Amino acid sequence: MEDDVRPELAAIDTVDVVDPLTIKLNLKAPFSPLIAQLTDRAGMMVSPKAAKEAGDKFGLKPVCAGPYKFVERVQQDRIVVEKFADYWNKDNVHIDRITYLPIVDGTVRLANLKSGGLDLLERLLATDIKEVKADSRLKLNAIPDLSYWGITINVGKGDKAKNPLGQNAKVRQALELAIDREAINQVVFNGEFVPGNQWVGPDNFYYQKSVPISKRDVAKAKALIKEAGVPTPITIDFMVPQGAENKAISEVVQAMAAEVGFDMKIRVTEFATSLNMGESGDYQAYLIGWSGRTDPDGNLYTFHACKAPNNNGGYCNADVDQLMNEARTFSQPEKRKPVYEKVAKALLTEGQGHIIYLYHRKVLIAQTTKLDGFVPVPDGLVRVVGLRFK
């Protein structure tokens, strides 16, 4: 999902300049995720003057702070940056110029890496891992990331929420019980990813073991639909962003759901268009993920709080809002975790929530062995400081 960082800084009320190297952030309320947010996208430095002058065109010619400075951007073709001579750590910046190429097709990306057209690629397809490992000229970097992927259900945004899936928790629970997450992992990702049912992965400190992954139960799913008094098949507009993996996931879900009484009508949609449609509520179910944040609040609050910017399902529960706000007041993880357990039980049991979490990716980055010094990080962002050619 496109990253909207505005909510991550919403707790900041005012900023005081203490001296040329110090600022003071004044908060509207206690907000324990702040430091984590500032080490991520929300803390990236941009030129206030350039941002003010460019407005919403800032992305066309950004002026920021980092090891490289912007040269050019050709939409759908390339972004070029070159080494910034005055960077504080310039002695550890060894490559003069970097060109970023947006290549949507994973097979084409890998072919370019193998032919020497690319030196590094991100988001390698899990099904291509064996091919990279078998090539002595290539190196694979793999590390569990912070993201999640799931199915967001429209429960309260416009006319498309007015259907059995959007309005009936038993029907949502039936859809979840139709899905075998490990089967998706094996069929689509060769078993390389991590099945999950929460906004953080099973190895995360904040994962709630008291709310485990549901096992597939066709009989119970059918019974729930019968209890709900909904005739079958239940037709669902299932919006799926373009991409080979997304299409494969949606087809596996479609086949599983059909066995309990759902007719998932897959609507493959260009990614940016799907984001706009998600925001406007023009869908009933939407296969979509989130890049992830180091603090659990960043994976949770903006998707579930009433009228929050990324709450595309239109979900709203005042009790859940209160709990999420309470969790923000504690800096000690051992105090926050029990609060999040209450949130998990409210959102993840008996179809009460609006997101069916499916799995967590790994950061899969392939590179030429000519490139040295790359270190993968769970947030998935490629760090270029320290990179050099042998």
Examine the coordinates and then state which fold CATH places here, giving the name of the CATH topology of the largest domain: Dipeptide-binding Protein, domain 3
Measure the end-to-end span.
Answer: 36 Å
How large is the radius of gyration?
Answer: 22 Å
Task: Choose one word for the global shape.
Answer: globular
Q: Would you identify the regions where 5 or more consecutive residues have pLDDT less than 50? A: none
The computed structural class is alpha+beta
Order of helices and strands: EEHHEEEHEHEEHHHEHEHEHEHHHEEEE
Number of strands: 16
Provide the CATH architecture of the largest domain: Roll
CATH classification class of the largest domain: Alpha Beta
Instruction: Provide the CATH superfamily of the largest domain.
Output: Dipeptide-binding Protein, Domain 3
Strand order of the largest sheet: 9-13-8-12-10-11
Number of domains: 2
Strand content: 15-25%
Structure summarized in a few sentences:
With 390 residues, the protein is an alpha+beta fold. It has 13 helices and 16 strands.
